[in-house]
Amino acid sequence: MQKFTRSVAAGAILAAAFGLGLMLPASADEAKDCTAGIALLKAEAAKSPPKATLDKINKALKGAERELGEKEYDECLDFVNDGKKAVKS
């Protein structure tokens, strides 16, 4: 029974390590996408859009930059997407 328990524990550790390994590249991609999205929003804000659109872009930009600083890349991308929607409208 003890041998079986060790095998299960070893398998669980390997599965966890493998799972973390798969998650790291996604996080790096999200960080890159977040940074690129922030640059895009800054470029759109520099084009002097209408005030209502600019306000939405600036709000999204502020949130995205905050989340980038907190390394919450998925939330950063949510703000970037909000900013992109404002540009399209």
UniProtKB/TrEMBL annotation:
It comes from the Bacteria. Keywords: Signal. This is Histidine kinase. Residues 1-28 form the signal peptide.
